[in-house]
Automatic annotation (TrEMBL):
Role, per record: Catalyzes the oxidation of hydrogen sulfide with the help of a quinone, such as ubiquinone-10, giving rise to thiosulfate and ultimately to sulfane (molecular sulfur) atoms. Requires an additional electron acceptor; can use sulfite, sulfide or cyanide (in vitro). It is believed the in vivo electron acceptor is glutathione.
Residues annotated as domain FAD/NAD(P)-binding: 12-128
Name of the protein: Sulfide:quinone oxidoreductase, mitochondrial
UniProt record similarity statement: Belongs to the SQRD family.
Species of the source: Pristionchus mayeri
Amino acid sequence: MRSSRRLLANCRLLVVGGGSSGLGIASKMARRLPKGSVTLIDSIQTHYYQPGFTLVSAGAMTLEQNRRKQKDLIPTGVKWLEQRVKAFQPQANAVTTEDGSTIEYDYMVLCTGMEIRLDMVEGLAESVKDESCPVSTIYLPHFAEKTNRLLNTIEKGNFLFTFPSTPIKCAGAPQKVCYIADDILRTRGVRSACSLHYYTTLPRIFGVEKYANALMKVVKERDINLHTRHALKKVDGKNRIATFENLDNSSTVEAEFDFLHAGPPCSPVSVLRNTPSLTDANGWVDVSCQTLQSTKFSNVFALGDCTNTPNAKTAAAISSQLKTVEKNLSDAIDGKPFSSQYDGYASCPLVLGASGKRAQVILAEFGPNGPMESFPFNQSKPSYFSFWLKRYFMPFLYWHGLIKGYWNGPSLFRRIVAPLKKNQK
């Protein structure tokens, strides 16, 4: 333990979390600070491109295509501590790891992501983990493969898809799987024997009106039954019964199923839930939604899914947040006023299918005040070009741009094409 303390005694910047936001900010700051100044702490050995999981469920990508060894992604000049944080002591500028070591820092960036909480729905974890049970979720890698297997083997019946009442990473994913299921069932020639039901806790199918209107056309065209304000509360995998709570009147509704895809509840990771000094009442890191600096500790920043910023929790949001944290953290280190504000940008490529004419995407890009579209065409209209971006360009951008700290989001591109948008109007 003493040797670990000596080794990391001069930790200028500690990055907690080795996902997309952690690797991205570690890469950026390693290029700004003297060699050896940045330490990244995370125990994960395998890194997944999580936006690809929907395409795994569609059979358009393999899990292997979305997987890399974490050791190959650690930025040059960054110390990687293969540990997990057991406790934060922000008052002492320190963290304690699970092996009992203490790491002191001058500045810290929290990139801990969020935790998939199958345990928050009675019976869900057991049903998902049972390979013989037709319940799955694409939010965990190997169950994305299970989802694809089930969609290619079940011949008929009720197919249920759910969206939870908690914050969730990639809020569009639960309905993407619904559209993918419709596509697969039509391709197999069994769609007429299947009834599709999408249960969401929201009052409409999508938060941004422009895209909600476009998606409702898809729902009607494909004969998908939409149930708003319903939360999944219990899964009886043995008897194939899902229990929902009607959030408007607290009544319960039971639905039989032959296939169930759950958009699982999510929460902050447990160590943050146990650190109220850093978080809000719900366990999310409490930050300024503009500067991404902690509201409680001036030498702490956070980005990605772990924060309480009001934006959708997507990889696209991280790209814009990286730019803000890089500039503001550098300003803090240099004793200067902050020079950047996060604009709330997020994006959700809504996959409508992956085969033939149904290989289309509605490319939703939005911020707090509505759409923030990058291209000089109506992105609420389903298109193959947007599907191509989702399938081929975005994975490339992730592996070679985002996690290496080179991609700051499409704001510059939006400014360049702005004249084309005006001409279009």
